[in-house]
Each structure stands twice: as C-alpha cells, then as structure tokens.
Amino acid sequence: MPETSTIQTIPLAAIKPNPHNPRRVITDQMVDNMAASLKSAGLKNPIKVTAHTDGTYQVLSGHIRLAGAQKAGLESLPALVLSLTPEEALLEAILDNQGQPMSWLETYMAAESLLKANPELTQKEVAARLGLDPAYASRGVKLLKVLTDPSRGLILENLKNPTGYKPSENAVFALTELDDPQRVEEALKVVIAKGLTAPQTKKLVETIKGGTPAEAHVPVKATPKPKSTATTPAPKAAPAPVQVPTQMSEAETLAWNTAAGISVITQIKAKIKKSERPSIFEALLLTGHTLWKITEWLLKHTYHIVKTVTKVVWKLFKESMKSTFKALGPTVYRVTRTLLGIAFLAVCAYVAWDSYAHGFHPWHALSTLFTLVVALVRG
User: Fold this and answer.
1) Which strands, in side-by-side order, build the sheet including 47-51?
2) In which element (H, E) is residue 334 found?
3) Are residues 118 and 38 in contact, defined by beta-carbon separation less than 8 angstroms?
4) How many CA atoms lie less than 13 Å away from 43 in the CB half-sphere?
5) Alpha-carbon torsion angle 328, 334, 336, 340, nearest 10
6) 3-state SS, residue 14
7) How many CB atoms are closer than 10 A to CB 79?
8) For the chain, what is the radius of gyration of the CA atoms?
9) Which of 109, 225, 234, 330 gets the highest tally of CB atoms within 10 A of its CB?
C-alpha cells in the first residue's frame, strides 16, 4: 500500500472511474471545457485517487479532469494517492465534489450513500458531516424512498441535457404524495414529457388520486401576465369647467343642478388631494355634501334601524315585565302580557293609519310614535 498521502504521475489507462461517484451529472460541455483548459494551461490541481492491489487506481475526485484529459489526448495525470477505508473514501469523494455545485438529486443520493455505508449514523449526523440542514436531509430521504433506479436515471439524464427540460426538486417532491414508487415512476415520465412545473405536478397528483391515468392528464398552462409598456403615467386632465345651459325644463334643471353639484364637489376633492387649501365657501359646500350623504344613508336604513331598536326595546320591556309580574302569579302575568301585546299592536296600527292619512314618511312615523308615548306617560 502507498503512503497515506503521496503525489504520483499515473497513466490514464490505470485510472478507473468511481462507480459510486457522487457527481452523476457530467455534461459534454463540462468535458470539452476541461479538455481545452488542460491543453492551454495544464492541470493545476491533481486528482485524488485510492490505490488497488491490482495496480489500478480509483478516482475519488476529478472525474471531469480525467474525462477532459482523455479527450485532450493526454497519457498521464498527476494524482494525490490516499490510503483510506471505504467509508472514508466515500466521505472524501462527497466532500471534495461539493467544491463544485451538484444537482439536488446528486446531493440527496450522496447523503443516502453515506448513510448506507455508515448505518450507525443518524440522519442528523450525516447532515452534519455533509454540511446540510437536517430538514433538507430528511426531505431527501422521503423523496428517495419513492424514486426507483429507473426514475433516478431518468432525472439524471434530463439534468445532463443542457437545453432541454430539467425537472425541478419541488416538482419531483410533489410526486411523493403518491407513496407508491411504481406510480411515481409512471407519473415522472409524464412530468418530464410535458415539462410540468411544481404547481402543475400537484394537479397531476390530484388527477391520479382521482382515478385518472397519468397519461390522460392535460396540464393547464398559466396565462402570462402582460408586460406593461407604459413608462410614465400620463398626467390627468384637469376637470372641464361647468357650462350652464341657457334654456331648460324643470326636469332638466334638476338633473343639471345634480350633475353640476357633483362636478363641483369632485373638483374640490381633487383640490384637497393636491394639498391645496380650499376656500371657506368650498369647505362649507363639502361639509354640506357630507352631511347630506349621511342623512341619505340614515333615511335609506331608517326601516332597519327602527325595526332593530323596536326589537331590542320590546325584549327589554318584556324581560322587565316578566320579572315584575312573576311574583303576582302566572295568571296575572299571562293577562298582563296579553293586554300589553294588544296595546302594542294598537299603537302600531295607529301609527300606520296616521302615516297613511298624512302620507308615509319615516320621520313622521317616528314623530307620531314619540307623541303617543309621551301622551301615555303623562296619562
């Protein structure tokens, strides 16, 4: 066995790739760029390998450099030969490959490999060794449970494609709701074939759970928001001056006065929004308009207000009379309640008749009711 750590120049024919390489996605562009770099500047950092008893070496880190050297036509590469246990070699390979960002699936599978190689470790301990958040590692375990080897291969193959659709982590994770790895595999084919997003994949899962085959799912495309072409908002035109007609009928005069009043109020409000101080006359007009709107609302809701107040008063009166006459016995209480009910109906009938005789108006009805109550109280 070699020393714990030595640098040697090793023929490419004796260097073998690692079957457990954490970096599963190596594109042709990566290899071409590395080959061009090796031809122009040479290798700056030696690859890391472990030695086998048959005289060959297995790569720990440097698969892209090895592929680039083969493409560039080199015969050998400088390599740092390490003497490590299989578990140490796996951890070294994972940590060294993290120097270059790996895909989400590669990271999950690296954590899975380390967990399988060290069954005594917990998920939290594996996450700590790889510098991952424990929740992220737990999410990866849940996801990989439903991904068969063909599913993983399909994802990795598409992640290698530099221009095609690359399934996102969130989209694939949405398939975990299916629980069954075989159903996930079938659904994954649809996700990749149709290029579904995460929200569209969630809809696909709902469709499959509803009993519809994954192949029959029709994704709903999101409608893109139209881009605004306006750069600066156009200035608002000043309100047109009010033109007074010369000759109008009575109905036309009323309509014009209403329209003119609204126009004047609108101009005063616009003036206040611009932080301009209104005149005393304009302030009085605006105050009168506000009071008129409040009065209009009260008139509109008078019936409901009177109805609610009457219910409340009657309930309070009924409860007070109930407690008052309770001591007099049930017979007196029933007779008194009946007489009060008749009196109440008589008052309502009188108010209705008086309002009908003088033309119904809410304020007149209230005035009549108040007058009648005062008269009854005075005796």
Assistant:
1) 5-11, 76-82, 47-51, 57-61, 15-16
2) helix 330-358
3) no
4) 22
5) 150
6) helix
7) 26
8) 43
9) 109
What DSSP character marks residue 5?
Answer: E
Buried/exposed 46-74: b ≥16 CB within 10 Å, e otherwise: bbbbbbeeeeebbbbbbbbbbbbbbbbeb
Residues 93, 21 contacting (CB under 8 angstroms):
yes
Q: If you count DSSP H runs as helices and E runs as strands, how many of each does the chain have, helices first?
A: 15, 5
Rounded to 5°, angle at Cα 69 from 65 and 74: 150
Q: What sign does the dihedral 282-287-290-295 (CA atoms) show?
A: negative
Bridge-based pairing of strands 5-11 and 15-16 is unpaired
Burial class (CB in 10 A: 0-12, 13-18, 19+), 377: exposed
Q: What is the pTM of this model?
A: 0.46
Interatomic CA distance for residues 129 and 91, integer angstroms: 8
Distance between CA atoms of residues 317 and 198, nearest Å: 63
pLDDT in tens, 129-159: 877 888 888 888 889 999 999 998 899 888 8
**Bridge partners, residue 47, by sequence:** 79
The amino acid occupying position 175 is L
DSSP of 23-86, one letter per residue? -----HHHHHHHHHHHHHH--SS-EEEEE-TTS-EEEEE-HHHHHHHHHHT-SEEEEEEE---H
Q: Specify the 3-state DSSP secondary structure of 11.
A: strand
Q: Are β-strands 15-16 and 57-61 bridged in parallel, bridged antiparallel, or unpaired?
A: parallel
How many Cα atoms occupy the beta-carbon half-sphere of 191 within 13 Å?
A: 31
Specify the 3-state DSSP secondary structure of 269.
helix
Residue type, 302: T
pLDDT one-digit tens code per residue, 325-348: 565 666 666 777 677 778 777 776
CA neighbor of 22 nearest in space, from 90, 77, 84, 122: 90
Say whether domain 1-92 belongs to CATH 3.30.300.30: no
Domain boundaries of the chain, sorted by first residue: 1-92, 250-291, 302-378
Q: Which two tokens stand for residue 53?
A: 């008893």
